[in-house]
Amino acid sequence: MGPHPAVAAIRLAVRRVLHEVLTQHAVHSGGAALAAASPARAASGGVATDHRAPLVLVACSGGADSMALASALAFEAPRLSVRAGGITVDHGLQDGSAERAAEVAGRLAAMELDPVEAVTVRVGRAGGPEAAARDARYAALDEAAERLGASAVLLGHTRDDQAETVLLGLARGSGIRSLSGMAAVSGAAGRYRRPFLQLDRQTARKACLVQSLPVWDDPHNADPAYTRSRLRHEGLPALEKALGKGVVEALARTAQLSRDDADALDSWAADAAADVRDDSGELECAKLFSLPPAVRRRVLRRAAIDAGSPAGSLFARHVEEVDRLITGWRGQGAINLPGRVQARRQGGRLVIRQG
């Protein structure tokens, strides 16, 4: 008799990602990784010890999603001769967080993941509590991955998380890139992998239940002070009540379609960016005007970032103001952008410079 369907689903999702990691690692190492993962060894289920094998880390908070992910990684990694470890991040935002992080690390070690680390971070205030905690967490994961030489870090985001992300992007009016939600692969060199984006949250929780895995429910996830929490417990249920079941699946599908469109437009804009410059490298307003608005605004955003405007502070309204120098020119003065960058129209050219 095979494993419970929920357990089978999470293991299959992780197995697919590990195959991708192995393939990528083999390309970079000249095939040594695939040679290490011999069929005989895979059949035996032995733990990989070859230092040439890729290391994959799981980021685990102790919640149901990440505990299910850790259990699937612990099961699948030895069968593919992949080294597997775990990282838990202590944000220090709740009483007893250090003890809880140590407990999670102990559970990961009990799964025979190695290395396992509990990393403490200091959360700032920039962008609000949710964004600040996220920034601190990813900085810690990046540092650990670099230091340990990890090929990938697995994250437990589910289809429900994806739906919430799409709705948050829609509420901000941030454009199609924001509606594309979270990518299955992201970060430097594709470091971050999200195996569960096609699985719902209930599947992960069921997998923990049938495997008797203890989970910790973060009280912040139910705190109405946080936007995502309100959306999860009030917004999405209200949408499902009004529109019927299937809202989460539809939003996740919207994310993928939006990502495909955004990727195509980004590629178009990258090609167009070179064509709209003169011999001195300045942007020509007439050529910019001839581009479709979605492409032109991408070119302008990239030019502003290249000039020194921080991407995280450069919003759609900033790009729209710069766009008016092309489409609604009335002799207006320079546009001030984040990072002390200015955009001004001079003699048929758009000049974007710092200072």
UniProtKB/TrEMBL annotation:
Gene3D superfamilies reported in the protein's UniProt record: 1.20.59.20, HUPs
InterPro entries (alphabetical): Rossmann-like_a/b/a_fold, TilS/TtcA_N, tRNA_Ile_lys_synt, tRNA_Ile_lys_synt_N, tRNA_Ile_lys_synt_subst-bd
Residue ranges of domain tRNA(Ile)-lysidine synthase substrate-binding in the record: 283-350
EC number: 6.3.4.19
Major site of localization recorded for this protein: cytoplasm
Enzyme superclass (EC): ligase
Domain tRNA(Ile)-lysidine/2-thiocytidine synthase N-terminal: 56-234
Key word Cytoplasm present: yes
Cellular localization per UniProt: Cytoplasm
Keyword Secreted among record annotations: no
Keyword list, A-Z: ATP-binding, Cytoplasm, Ligase, Nucleotide-binding, tRNA processing
Residues reported to bind ATP: 61-66
Catalytic activity: cytidine(34) in tRNA(Ile2) + L-lysine + ATP = lysidine(34) in tRNA(Ile2) + AMP + diphosphate + H(+)
HAMAP family recorded: tRNA_Ile_lys_synt
Functional note: Ligates lysine onto the cytidine present at position 34 of the AUA codon-specific tRNA(Ile) that contains the anticodon CAU, in an ATP-dependent manner. Cytidine is converted to lysidine, thus changing the amino acid specificity of the tRNA from methionine to isoleucine.
Family listed: Belongs to the tRNA(Ile)-lysidine synthase family.
The protein, known as: tRNA(Ile)-lysidine synthase
Organism: Streptomyces genisteinicus
Gene: tilS
